[in-house]
Predict the 3D structure of the following.
Amino acid sequence: MTTAPPRHTRPVRVFSLRLWLPLSLVLASGVMFLIVLVAQQQHYQRELQQFADTTAHAELLETRRALETVLRRGDGTGTDSVVSQLGLDPAIAHAALIGPDGNVIAATRFAWRGHSATASIPGFTDEAVQQVRQAQREFLQLDQAQLRLTALAPVTMGLQPGEIRATRQGLLWIDYDLRPVAAQTWAQLRQLGLMLAAAVLLAVLGLLLLARRGILRPVAALRAGMQRIGAGDFQHLPQWRGSGEFRDLGIALEHMAGQLQARSTALAESEARFRQLSDAAFEAIVLHENGRVTDANAAADRLLGTPPGGLVGTPILSWVAPSLLDSTVQRIAQGAEGVWEVDLIDTQGQVIPCECSVRKRPLGHRQVRVVALRDIRTRLAAEAEIRQLAHFDALTGLSNRRFLLEQVTQELAAAGTQPRRAALATLNINAFQSVNDSMGMAVGDTVLRIMSRRLSALQQQGQTLARVDGDTFALLLPDLQGDLDAASAAAARSVEMLLAAIAEPVEVQGQVLHLSAGAGLVMIPNDSNDAPELLREAETAMHRAKDAGDEHVHFFAHALQEAASERLALRSDLRRALQTHPSPLVLHYQPQMDSGGRLAGVEALVRWQDPRRGLVSPVHFIPEAEASGLIVPLGNWVLQEAATTLHRWQSDPACSAWAGPLTMAVNVSARQFREADFTRRIEDLIARVGIHAFALELELTESVLVEDLEATLEKMAQLRRHGVRFALDDFGTGYSSLAYLKRLPIDVLKIDRSFVMDIDAPGHSGQGKRPAVLIDAIVAMAHQLDLKVLAEGVETDAQHASLLQSGCDLFQGYRFARPLPEAELRAWASQL
Ligand code: C2E
Ligand code: CA
Ligand code: CA
C-alpha cells in the first residue's frame, strides 16, 4: 500500500475563520449600508423635488385661485384670511401677497403689511419677481442646501374702475421651510440603518454560531481526535451526528485510526512474539549500538544477574573482564564479526567464560551489533572432567595407561630429535588375584591404594607413575644420564626400589600381608617407535620375570627377538590371509539398540580364523595391520563384506522385519581413511552393491582427525553429501574437546567402554568422580550439537538403566548381544 508523494511542497496558505468571517460580514454590510445611503440620498432629493413639484405647486395654484376669487369680489379683507390660512401649514415658514407696487398686501407676519416686500421679507429678491412677471406663470425655486423652497405665482388683482380687464398683477410668495420634511426623511433613513445594523449583527452572530458549530467545533474535535491517535489512543475519537463534510472527514479519521490501530497492534504483537522468542532462547542475546546496550533478552539478564531490562543502557564493555578489555576494544574498533571466547563479569563479580558470536546488522540508517552469548562453564568443566578422567586412574589417583602412553609418545618424539635416554618399567603384583578372592575386592582396592602411595613416595621429579591395568603399575623414567649401560643400571636401581617398597608388609583388616612383584623394563629408544608397543615389550619382560619368580628387573632385550619374529610371522600370515579364497577373515555383527529396545543397527567387527592360532581377535592383528599398511586392503575387504551382507539382509524377505531401517557401522582406521581414493571407493561401493548411503555408518576415531583436520573435514563433507553417516568411536579416550566436535560433520558419538564400565564398578562409589554425572554432561553437550549418543560396552542392567537415565540414544554391549556370526545374528534379530 503506497501513496503517491505530494506534488507540491509549497505550504498551503490558510486564514483564521474566527477573525475573517465576522470581519468580512461587517465589511460587506458596511458596503451595503453605503449603497443604501446613496440610494436614500437620491430618494430624499427626489422626495424634496416631488414636494416642490406637486404639493407646493398645487398649494400655490390653489392659493392663487382662492386669492383671485377674493380679489374679484373686491373684498380686500378676504386676502388676509387666505394668507394667514397658509400660516397654519407647518411646512410653510412665511407667505405673503405682494401688490403690483411691490408692497405687501397680506402676509403671515402682520408686521410686513404695507411695507416694501424687498425690504421687509428676508431672502425676497426682485429678480424672482421679474421672472414671474415676465413669464406670467408660477415659479418654484428649491434650495437644497438651505432646505428652503420659494414658490411664486402671479395673482391677477381685482378690476380697477375703468378697467375692462384686470391688468394689474400681484404676486403670491410662499416660503417653505423643508427641514421638518427632511427630518422626517432622515428619521426614516436612520431607522432603516438601525434595522440593517441589527440585521447584520444578527447575521454575524448567526454566522459565527454556524461557523462555531459547523466548522470550529468539528475542527477542534478532529484536532483532539488526531492528538489522541498520536498518543496511541485509538478508542476515544469524536462521535458524529448529522451529515456533511466534517462527518466524512471524521469517518475518514476513524478509518485511519482503525488501520493505524490494526497496524500498531500487529506491530506490538510481532514485537511481543519476537521478545518471547528471544526470551525463550537459551542463548543470551544483546544488541548494542556504539558500545551501549539497546536491547537484551531474558537469558542475558539471567546470565549477568541483572533484573529484567537491567542491561539496557549499560556500556557493553563494563561486563567484559578487565584482562580482555583491550582486545575487546580493539575488536569493536575494527568492526570485527565472528565467534570467539570472552570472559564476562556478572553483577556478583563472578567470571563467566562465554562463547560470543558478533554480527553487524543495519537498523534503518544505524548499525547495531547483535551479540549472542553462550555460557560455556558447563562445557569447560565437562572438558576438564573428561580430560581428568582421560588421564587419571580413579581408584589410585595415579596417571592412567592413556596418559602414560602420551608421555611415552612424547619421549619417543624427543629421543628422535636429540640424544637422550629414558626407560619404561612395568610392575605387577604377584598373586594379587588371591588377595581379591580371599579378602574381597574392597580389600584388594585398599591394597592397591596403599601400594600406589608407597610408589608415589619414591617417584622422582619428571617421572610418570601410572596404574595401567588391574594390579599393574608402570613408571616412565626420562632423562637418564650416561651410556646405555649406565642408564640401564640407574633405571634398574630405581625400579628395584619400587619392588622393595611393594615387598614391605601391608596391614589390612588386622591381617599382615607379604606381597611381592615382578618388573620388566624397556629402554627408550629401541627398535620400537610406538608407545603401546613399548609398553607391550615392558610387559613381556615383566611376565618373564614373574614366570621366573625373579625379584630382579627383567630387561626386554631378551625377549626382543622372539616377539619381533612373532610379529613378522603374524604380518605375513595376515597378508596371505587377505589373498586366500575363501577368506579366513569373517565379520561378526554386534547389535546396536535404541532406547525403545529395538534393533537400530549393527557394528561389523572383523575376526581372523587362522589354522594355527585359532580365532584371532582384532585387538591383536589390527595394530599389526596398521603398522604394516595391510589395514588398507583389510579395511576394503571389511567394507565390501559388510555392505554385501547388509544388501543380502535387505533383499531377503525373511529379514524384512528388522533389516529395513538397519544401519551398518564399519570401523575405519586412520591410515585407511587417509588414502587418497577413500571417498571414491566408498561411492563406488554404494553404487556397486546397491545399498542406501545413509545405511552406512563409518566409525572414525579422533586420531583420524588430528593429523590434517581440513583435509579430513573435506573428505567427510563430500561423503556426507551422498548421505553417508559418521560416528566418532571411543569418545573420551582422546582429545575429547567438545568445541572441536562442533566442526565435525558427525551423527553419532560413541562413549568409550571405559566410561560405561565405571558406572557400577566397585571402588568408585566413594570417589569424587561419578561417571553418570560425566556421561550426563557429555550427553547434554552432544544433544546440543545435534548428535546422537551411543554407549559402548553396556554389560549390566544397572549400566543400561543409568545410561537411559542420562539420555543416551543407542546402546551396544554384551547386555544385549556379543558380536555374532551372520547366521546367529539373523536368528537373534528374528526372535527379538
Ligand atoms: P571397537 O570399535 O571399540 O569395538 C568394540 C569392541 O568392544 C569389540 O571388540 C567388541 O567385541 C567389544 N565389546 C562390545 N560390547 C562389549 C561389552 O559389553 N563388554 C566388553 N568388554 N567388550 C565389548 P573387538 O571385536 O575385539 O574389536 C576390538 C577393536 O578392534 C575395535 O574396537 C576396533 O577398534 C578394532 N576393529 C575391529 N574390527 C575392525 C575393522 O573391521 N576395522 C578396523 N579398522 N578396526 C576394527
Ligand atoms: Ca568401533
Ligand atoms: Ca569403541
Q: What stands out?
A: Residues 590, 605-606, 617-619, 622, 635, 638, 667, 669, 729-730, 753, 792-795, 812-814, 819 surround C2E (ligand 1) (CB under 6 Å). Residues 17-72 form the longest helix (56 residues).
